[in-house]
Amino acid sequence: MGGVRELAASFVVPGPAGVAIRDRLGHLTPQDEKVLRAVGEHQGALASRDLKARCADGHDHSAQTWAARKRDLTGVSSSRIAGAITKATHDQWALARCCQAAHIQNLEAGIKTLRHRLSLPVGERGTKRAAGGYRSKNEWFRKSRRLAMLEDRHAAAVSDRQAGRVRVVRGGKRLLNTRHHLTQAELTEEQWRERWEAGRWFLAADGESGKRFGNETIRVTPDGEVSIKLPAPLAYLANARHGRYTLTATVAFAHRGAEWADRITANRAVAYRIHLDTGRGRWYLTASWQRPVVKTVPLATARAQGMIGVDTNADHFAAYRLDRHGNPVGDPHRFPYDLSGSAGHRDAQLRHALTRLINWAVRAGVAAIGIEDLDFTAEKTREKHGRQKRFRQLISGIPTGKLKARLVSMAAEQGLAVVAVDPAYTSMWGAQHWQKPLVTPRRKMSRHDAAGIAIGRRALGHPVRRRTAPPPHDRSDRAGHRTVQAGPGDPGREGTRPPTTDRPPGGPSPNGKRKRETSASTTVRDAPRTQQWVQDSLTHTG
Q: Is the pTM above the cut of 0.90?
């Protein structure tokens, strides 16, 4: 199969490493809100100052500079708060460095594509694997200007990376830019200012195992009582002993509440974060903790009970159940979702679709879900799909990163493994080998349904095509049954194929006329030479 790239091996995706749950802090008094705002504003200013110092250090950062920053913050807060701030600062700086590297890689990909297309004659047609030349001299000129702009951006980004400079906005760059587009965002300046200030607050504390209820700074008792250790300058606001402020609101985690209660009862570390949703005017408390590293199940174990192959699309999941031999079972299932609207709406739609998918997998009795290891980073560039704006919007709208995280965490709760496969050629080969054969008067097969079969078969370790067989000597089966799906030791492999009508094999048809037995279909003649052929039936019937 010349021209087909080598496929990556399938693997079982590791399970989630952490848990986060949230509950609302309801019925807060005005004094409670005043204290929370004061603490958040004070610690947010300290976090901004520490982030500035960390960015100034650049490559000169070391354990000694980290300790010096923590000592400076301890005098105006506390040792634990200073530790939480410096750790959050370091994580934010490291994330900015990762984003900077991804930005440079994206610029390099765009520059490479532009240089290739500019080197071709105007009007030269492209191929499936490489774009052609530009359509006109005017477009060629505009793209040459864009190449110069991208090269300038790339040089600046590389210079910043070599010097250890990053650009970080506490509160978010998107919210910062919204300040210049208040009319389009339907916000007043006061509303934007409130969001901006709330986004820059710092009301978080890391957990400590061995301390009372797993956290000394933000403590939550098993009864749901929340208290905060105030920083030194705000100690006069305390209403409890040892400089603490106890809120009138209580929390009761409905989701994973028993697991959370077990942790704090055993004084195991739990991190907390308090934030204000300015749009709703509500305060929330988020609790999170790490899980012990769970060893993933072996790939053979995940394949033992069959697989559900899932094809991810812009508006639905197309799923098909397969037995362990790779045979489709039943009809295709589709789980639609709507990714328009706000981020909260999109997230809720995705969770709802995944919940339905996982519940169906549990009822089907499989042990794993096969899904493509998608990454559209290289497919979203203007240089590769300049005019195809709708296609770029389509692939940009598929939530690949969030989908992986959601599916892995939700499937782990139901004891399901997730097998990631190479996404190459699944839609094309699925449609070629499975779409037409499975169409019946009562079953409609789409290209996406067939792709789900291809994904499931790849996750099971089978080839995508329905059968691989040697060239027969003639129209009979003297060369062996034309399949390698079922192994020699599998029970039921010698079972007969189901008849096409109610008549006995070889008997007369309902109208009294004898029909010729169905002959074998055309075989595939490009099978690997090393294939060992066995006399098995087309499908496993045991």
A: no
